[in-house]
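Researcher: We're teaching a course module on how sequence relates to structure. For the next exercise, students receive a sequence and then see the predicted structure as tokens, so they can try to spot secondary structure elements on their own. Here is the exercise chain.
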Amino acid sequence: MTTQAKNHIHKPITKLNLHTQLFTSTNIEPTTVTKAITDPKWRQAMSDEYDALVRNGTWELVPSAPSHNIVGCKWIFRIKRNSDGSIDRFKACLVAKGFHQRPGVYYLDTFSPVVKPTTV
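Model: And here is the predicted structure for the students to work with:
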């Protein structure tokens, strides 16, 4: 059997231009609310998100019953960056844990609070 190695045919070694970036504590996205609350920038982002949800009337509180499925929520944290890599803003999103629900049992319609201007 004739192989490329036996015929001294080898693929050229491609060198990758790998670089690393040193992240400081302000450049790391927190994974839990406990970590986020310790930083005033993330706390302000959480406050802005919550105020926007209340201002837009995203939900209304109703009394719960034992037979109802209560949907929890989770904070998601992202750092938005400019094209040059500098930090533009700290963004916090409060999202519902929709995987706790089943279509047709807990809800019939779907709702998305995000609307693009092109769809309106």
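Model: If you want an answer key for the exercise: The chain has two helices and two strands. The helical segments are 33-37, 40-55.
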